[in-house]
Write a structure and sequence with these properties.
Layout: E1 6-9, E2 14-20, E3 26-30, E4 42-43, H1 44-50, E5 52-55, H2 76-98, H3 124-138, H4 142-154, E6 157-165, E7 168-173, H5 176-188, E8 196-201, E9 216-223, E10 231-245
Helix pairs in contact: 2-3
Length: 254
């Protein structure tokens, strides 16, 4: 509907839309007056004679452009479902303000002839993808991260990384980087601050999260203070990638 929900006249009175005439004219009553007969309500032209200072659905001054965001691409069925939910909320809110009868939303007992869908906003299907795009940008890409996480969980297998020392398991991590960090921290704790310690991993040219041969072992070179040469040895700290299935495969044991 084109009629605003709320109108402010120049005398300071706030008028809220309460009903609609048979001819489609919106009827307004002063805010705070709960029960107002329709024959004493005012139409929008009558309020205009008093002088309208503003309304809830009209901007009194132009505003600057908002942030430019890319609308989120959603399936049509999802957009329709979101728009339907938004329109239901709008219809419930407006009906609560105008009538609030107990028969809603199946029907309306007022003389306005209202029904669920009477105040639907036809532009919600266009607005929703843009609004969600702005919401996503405000959350720093969290939605995309959640989508990636869902895709990861839905994959047949998940790779975790086991940190261990001399076959003793210290922990499991979702990235090799965190498993390595655990091993390196434990290794450095074995020396005091006076000892120069250098650490590296076997096949150090591989990327941290995608070791080519699977298991990686930490090597250490330690030089105590006052010594020109230290020594190098295998530390016993190992990172091993393990595949964890997300579901049981009855044919996997065959």
């Amino acid at each position: 509907m084109s009629a605003p929900l709320e109108v402010n006249t120049l005398d300071g009175t706030v008028w809220t839309r309460r009903a609609v005439t048979r001819d489609g004219l919106a009827l307004y009553a002063p805010e705070g007056v709960c029960n107002c007969p329709e024959f004493v309500m005012a139409t929008l032209p009558e309020l205009a004679e008093r002088g309208i200072g503003g309304s809830a659905d009209v901007l009194l001054a132009p505003v600057g452009p908002g942030p430019v965001v890319r609308p989120i691409a959603l399936p049509e069925a999802q957009v329709d479902a979101l728009a339907a939910s938004g329109n239901r909320a709008v219809n419930d809110m407006v009906h609560e303000d105008l009538c609030a009868c107990d028969a809603w939303p199946e029907k309306c007992l007022s003389s306005g002839g209202f029904f669920q869908g009477y105040w639907d906003w036809g532009y919600l299907e266009t607005a929703i993808p843009a609004v969600l795009g702005l919401w996503e940008s405000m959350r720093g890409g969290e939605l995309e991260r959640l989508r990636a996480r869902v895709a990861e969980l839905e994959s047949p297998t998940l790779t975790v990384y086991r940190a261990s020392h001399d076959s003793i398991v210290m922990g499991h991590y979702t990235t090799a980087a965190e498993a390595r960090k655990h091993c390196e921290t434990e290794m450095r704790r074995e020396y005091d601050e006076s000892t120069k310690v250098s650490l590296w991993w076997r096949e150090d040219e591989d990327t941290v999260d995608q070791p080519e041969d699977g298991e990686q072992e930490l090597f250490v070179h330690a030089t105590p203070r006052g010594m020109e040469r230290g020594r190098t040895w295998r530390s016993g700290y190992v990172v091993t990638p393990l595949e964890v299935a997300s579901a049981y495969d009855p044919d996997g044991d065959e």
